[in-house]
Each structure stands twice: as structure tokens, then as C-alpha cells.
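Assess this one:
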Amino acid sequence: MTDCLIVGGGLLGMLTARFLHDAGAEVLVLDKSALGHEASWAGGGILSPLYPWRYPEPVTALATYSQQHYPALAEAIATESGIDPEWTQSGLLVVDEAGERDAAQAWARGHGLVLEAVPPGEVAGIEPALADGRHAGLWMPEVAQIRNPRLVKAMRGSLVARHIAYREHAGVERLVVADGRVLGVQTVEGEIRADRVLVASGAWSAGLLAQAGVRIEVAPVRGQMILFGAKPGVLTRIVLAGDRYLIPRRDGHILCGSTLEHVGFDKATTQAAMEELHAAAIERVPALAEYPVVKHWSGLRPGSPQGIPYLGEHPEVRGLYVNAGHFRNGVVLGLASARIVADQMLGRTPPLDPAPYAPAAPH
């Protein structure tokens, strides 16, 4: 018997476990594979929603809280694990979006954020690597990034340092529910009892909850990415154009993503996607033609109708909590989401109003 059982050892599950443990709760994290090896590992790590002014206010609230607290978290887990997650304030440059300038600036003013309209011909002054500096742009200098694989490795190391229990390759077959209350889970190795159970299983969350008669609208959306083996200085800013983005890492590697594919739980990569991403990257930054693609991978995002995640206790099953449905923004929304859910599980008042994220609320 444990206080809190977390099903899913991705970033959300590990962050929630950390907050619960800090409050004195006994926690056990279960993952069907290795910790952090699904969408948490596969994403780009931009610490802002893409085109953030397009999102509903509940998403902005989560992003703002997370953005404020990520630097301290990155420093803490680097110290605990010995792995630097590479929080880096690269800034975000949006090109070819002059038509949204007024809406974007109004949104930024309303939230106290810096967003500068860049006139045609001045974009190259912010990012010289771009092929065509004649376009207008939008510049958000405060936006940072974090390197997903290093982030989840550091989080895993933090769990070890804090002696937070976890089991890898421990698949959960079903939730154990009786008389409107969760009692634990059934795993491939047997039943584990717990006072509270959190489902934080990403794209797989809806299927697991459905077995207990609980419904949330979360479905897998495949995203493919490629990584160029470039050198430091080729690109210095995060660049967003249309549906594609380029993210420069500290060691010079440049990530290009990402596709949006509704293909179920198929994580296969395709040659067509690789070629399209490669062409899009070189079109924006011609210097990338000189560097090889050193990696091509995909991940399954937990898509939800408006990108608003489900957070909190489910109204139909006492003791059953959800932290899922972040779609493309699991990293930037994750810290705030974990804080909200952990506080609810502990009977505390969360730092943000949890009502818009309640599993019973429209999403």
C-alpha cells in the first residue's frame, strides 16, 4: 500500500512525484517502458506554445507559471542528477506572420510579455542565418528552451537522488475500482494498492481510463522530427515559420519539426516526412545543406480538443486523478500542471484556478 501511485513515468509523472514527495507523501511511479521515453523525450522543448496568442487563456496561464519556475527547476535537478537539462533563453522569432501582428502584440501587452514587431528587412538582424530577411517578423526575446532528452534524464536522476520509488517496464493492465473509488492498479506482476492513483500516461491515458468507465478526449497525434549535426553558431534563435520550427541546441545540433499525423498509435517514421522536414529547414536556413541529418524520430502527442489538459480528480471515481492531454505543449505546461495536480492530491489550494482543467469541464 502506498499513498500515491502514478501511472506514467514521463515528465508529468516525474514532476508530480517530486512535488508529492516534497510534501512527505509516499510515492510510487510505474511506467510501461523506461522513464521519460515517450512524448517527453521526443518533443522540441520550446518553453512557449507555438503562436501563443492563438491559445485559450487556460493554456496561457499554465505556460506563464511554468516559464517563471523552469529556471529554478533546471538548476535544482542539474545539481541533484549531475545532468544539465540546458535551459537556454534563445528567444523565439516568428517569420511570415505579419498578418497577426496586432493580435499578437495585444495579447503580449495583456500578459505583460515582450513581443516586438520586426519590420521587413530587419529580421536578419535578429537571426542572420535566415535565407530571406525581407519578411516581417515577431520577436519574443524572453522565450527559452530546454533539451528534452537531458531534461528527462535529469528528472530521473532527481528521483534517484530523492529516493522516490519507481518501477520501469511495469505495465498497468487496468485500474482497480470499486464502489466509486479507486483502490489501485493491476499490473503484469500483480495488484498494487494505493490511496490515490494518478493517470499521467500521455496518449495512452484515455484507453486506461476507459477500462474503468471514465472518459476523456485524448488521442495520439504523431509528430516526426529530424536533427542536423551542425556546429555552434549556425543558428542562434528558435525560428518558427508556418507549421515548422528550428531549434538550435548548445552543442550546435539543430532540431527541425514537426509533423502532425493522426495515425493512431503508429510511431513509425517515414521517408516522405524526413524529406519534407529537410527541405523546409534548408529553405529557411540554407547553411543546413552542408550538414547531415543525424537522427530522425517520432513521438505520440496526447492530443485534446483545444489543447487544454485534463487536471485533477475525476468526478466519477474518488481518489482517481488525471494529468493528461497537453497535446504539443507537455513540457511548457508540465511544471504548472504537476503543481496543480499534486496540490489537489495533497488537499492544498493550487497556485492557479483548477476549474478550467477539471476532467468534467468542457475541453
About this structure: The mean pLDDT is 94. The first helix runs from residue 11 to 22. The chain has eight helices and 16 strands. The helical segments are 11-22, 39-42, 57-81, 101-110, 148-161, 205-210, 271-284, 330-345.
